[in-house]
Design brief:
Residues 1-177 form the Macro domain. This protein has helices at residues 33-42, 44-55, 95-112, 131-148, 163-175, and strands at residues 4-9, 19-24, 67-71, 79-84, 116-119, 155-160. With 177 residues, the protein is an alpha/beta fold. β3 (67-71) and β4 (79-84) form a beta hairpin. The relative contact order is 0.22. The structure holds ligand AR6. Residues 11-13, 23-25, 31-35, 37, 85, 120-127, 159, 161, 165 line the site of ligand AR6.
Length: 177
């Protein structure tokens, strides 16, 4: 059975899910927006796990479009999956990297057996990606991934911080039926 694709308006860090996706940066060492909230509410174990990843596999940082998991610390989840969205560019098409964030996060989640996964609107804050376009890419990519692996997940949830973001994702869901 194909997983449900759902939308909620709210704070990612208040969600209950097997895995929460963090809109990180390649340093993996924290920042503002979702990333700041994940570390603030999740506690120091997440940063410790990120530092360990920097010291081992990702000495040069996590490349844009890739994803890696850590503990979720005190969050109501088993895992945080950190992914690095592309910074919006008006001159260069970076859509493939934004799609890759979603695909790779789901690949990592499936590898961990995480059946419920919550995503924020990656790249639409500090990285300035226009919401409608980001929503179209996010929804389309997740939909394709779920169709390709219908038994891997129960629910993929987009958690949108405000009404504007929620509306953009609602339109993207409706657009592709
Ligand atoms: N829950 C859900 N959505 C949120 C939350 C939250 N707690 N906080 C913000 N948003 P951003 P990016 C929304 O900036 O654009 C960080 O500094 C926000 O309104 O968190 O991928 C990282 O360290 C927006 O719609 O991520 C990177 O340096 C969306 O989440 C950089 O920002 C994404 O906004 C990544 O930028």
């Amino acid at each position: 059975m194909t997983a449900r694709l759902t939308l909620v308006q709210g704070d990612l860090t208040r969600q209950h899910a097997d895995a929460l996706v963090n809109a990180a940066n390649s340093s993996l060492l924290g920042g503002g927006g979702v990333d700041g909230a994940v570390h603030r509410h999740g506690g120091p174990d997440i940063l410790a796990a990120c530092r360990a990843l920097r010291a081992s596999r990702y000495g040069r940082g996590l490349p844009t479009g890739q994803a890696v998991a850590t503990t979720a610390g005190r969050l109501a989840a088993d895992h945080v999956i950190h992914t690095v969205g592309p910074v919006w560019s008006a001159t260069e098409d970076r859509s493939a990297l934004l799609a890759s964030c979603h695909r790779e996060s789901l690949r990592v989640a499936a590898g961990l057996g995480a059946r419920t996964v919550a995503f924020p609107a990656i790249s639409t804050g500090v990285y300035r990606w226009p919401l409608d376009d980001a929503a179209r890419i996010a929804v389309g990519t997740v939909r394709d991934a779920l169709a390709a692996a219908p038994d891997d997940f129960d629910e993929v949830r987009f958690v949108l911080f405000d009404e504007t973001a929620y509306g953009a994702f609602e339109r993207a869901l409706a657009d592709r039926g």
